Amino acid sequence: MLCILSNNHVLARSGRATLGEDTLQPGLVDSGCSPTGNIVGDFAGNFVPLGTANVDAALATARGNVDASGAILDVGVPRNTPQTATVGMPVMKSGRTTGFTTGNITSIHTSVTVQYMRGCGVGRPFNISYANQLVTGAMSAGGDSGSLLLSNDGSPNPVGLLFAGSSSTTVYNPIQDVINAFRAGGHTFSFVGSAALTADDAGNKIQRGPAPEDLELALQAKVENEAGLFRDPGVLGVGVGPTADNPFEAAIVVYFDRSQVANIPPRIDGFRTRVILTDPIVAH
After folding, report:
1. 143 phi and psi, to 5 degrees?
2. Residue 97 region, left (φ>0) first, then alpha (ψ -120 to 50), else beta?
3. Is 272 helix (H, G, I), strand (E, B) or coil?
4. CA angle 175-178-183, nearest 5°?
5. Which of 4, 45, 231, 268 has the fewest C-beta atoms lying within 10 Å of its C-beta?
6. Whole-angstrom distance, CA of residue 218 vs CA of residue 215
7. If DSSP codes are grouped into helix, strand and coil, which group holds residue 44?
């Protein structure tokens, strides 16, 4: 069965959609919250309820007016083999609002709090916390949710699913976590696209960030200290990545609300901290 992959807050309307509900393009937020536009799919069911599986993901069964090859505007046909994100990895996406953008993985294993609204751009906001997310710099804006993050190394493999961000960050579910969430419910899941290039193996060996063993030690320090960091109301996310001035030195990366005064220690358990100022991180 050919399906459209996007976010729960998009296709499932944060759990309020009914089975078989029309999936529209453009979406509700683009049409004044009126259900007009092209029907491209039917909501497949709330397989992964929002807030239950550490991902924001949903499926719609595709109607005949979608490209069965999986071709993405400005990218082409992606590879069908998922790829694990690494710090510094070059990535790209093509989205509804900002189109084709590129960047690099800034942090992995990122704990982050994301703000949602239940209505079509209105309603009382609520927060959901996620762990082990991927973060890049600014690669998106509102309306880009559901974009597939792809490796930008000559072989566009699925890396993550875009679901949130701010003016300075974009947040993604690791793509294997998305796959696992659907498979855990007994569903089969695989990507359409072409076979992976053998060049991927060589590309993955290029060191673009800190050594894995250094990141592992930084991760241990992050896990042991993040509860204390999150007690500061300005802390919106904590992950591991490189320092600002040395891409090969591991750091604890703290995403901090720019409207508040940051008082983050320069080092935690021997690792330098990197503070990235941001607006509140919201579902995109």
Report:
1. 105, -10
2. alpha
3. strand
4. 125
5. 231
6. 5
7. coil
pLDDT, tens digit, 9 for 90 and up, residues 168-190:
999 999 999 999 999 998 889 99
Whole-model pTM: value is 0.93
CA-based R_g, the chain, Å: 19
Q: What is the mean pLDDT of the chain?
A: 92
The CA distance from 116 to 9, in Å, is 8
**What are the tens digits of pLDDT across the range 1-46?**
899 999 999 999 999 999 999 998 877 666 666 666 688 899 999 9
Calculate the alpha carbon distances from 230 to 193, 251, 263 in Å: 40, 17, 12
Whether the Cβ atoms of residue 240 and residue 248 lie closer than 8 Å to each other: no
Rounded to the nearest angstrom, the gap between the alpha carbon of residue 211 and the centroid of all alpha carbons in its chain is: 23
Number of C-beta neighbours around residue 158 at 10 A: 23
Cα 174 to the center of its chain, rounded Å: 7
Closest CA to 1 of 36, 53, 47, 49: 47
- Mode of pairing for the β-strands spanning 158-165 and 282-283: antiparallel
Q: Which two tokens stand for residue 42?
A: 């039917």
| pLDDT given for residue 201 in this prediction | 47
Q: What is the mean pLDDT of residues 136-152?
A: 96
Q: How many CA atoms lie within 13 A of 135 on its CB side?
A: 32
User: For the residues 225-239, what does the mean pLDDT come to?
Assistant: 97
Count how many Cα atoms sit within 13 Å of the Cα of residue 196 in the half-sphere of its side chain: 17
pLDDT tens sequence across 46-92: 999 999 999 999 999 998 778 889 999 999 999 999 999 999 999 99
- Phi first, then psi, for residue 100 (nearest 5°) are -85, 120
